[in-house]
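Students often ask why inverse folding is considered easier than folding. One informal answer: many sequences map to the same fold, so there is more than one right answer. In these notes we will look at a single instance of the problem. The structure comes first.
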């Protein structure tokens, strides 16, 4: 019989805790909380051990801009044609040896370190559907474009699979 006296008390405490949590949640940044939770889940997940190693880059493999030269003056939108030798262009997803997809970094430096995930934002452009060309809307002035090749999980192959050019967008 004593167990049944505990149940109403536990329910009452639960309702009070949920009610107070609602007030507290209204004052917190839910985006930051969700990001923290996702990062913790990824750390705690047993699947992280199953992530394959970054594949080796074949000897002689390289990426390059097919149509842009360093110091070139261009008009916006800038047509970018991307090329790779020694590896196959593939979509993002599974990690497949000797393959990857392109990313363009706009005004953020030469390359991402090997094995580092390439973030996706307005200056780190992803072409995970296997695209080999793009149009970039750039403001007039000088810009640095870095072409990065990454594996299916968006991990950079590093400077060995990167190419950088400076272009000037005319007014």
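Output (designed amino acids):
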């Amino acid at each position: 019989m004593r167990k049944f006296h505990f149940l109403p008390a536990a329910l009452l405490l639960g309702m009070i805790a949920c009610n107070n949590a609602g007030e507290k949640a209204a004052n917190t940044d839910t985006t930051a909380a969700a990001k923290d939770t996702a990062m913790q889940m990824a750390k705690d997940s047993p699947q992280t051990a199953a992530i394959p190693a970054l594949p080796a880059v074949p000897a002689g493999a390289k990426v390059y801009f097919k149509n842009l030269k360093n110091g070139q003056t261009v008009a916006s939108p800038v047509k970018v044609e991307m090329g790779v030798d020694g590896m196959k262009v593939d979509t993002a997803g599974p990690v497949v040896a000797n393959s990857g997809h392109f990313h363009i970094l706009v005004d953020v430096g030469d390359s991402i370190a090997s094995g580092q995930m390439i973030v996706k934002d307005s200056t780190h452009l992803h072409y995970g559907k296997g695209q080999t060309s793009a149009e970039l809307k750039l403001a007039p002035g000088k810009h640095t474009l870095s072409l990065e090749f990454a594996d299916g999980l968006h991990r950079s192959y590093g400077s060995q699979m990167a190419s950088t050019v400076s272009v000037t967008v005319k007014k």
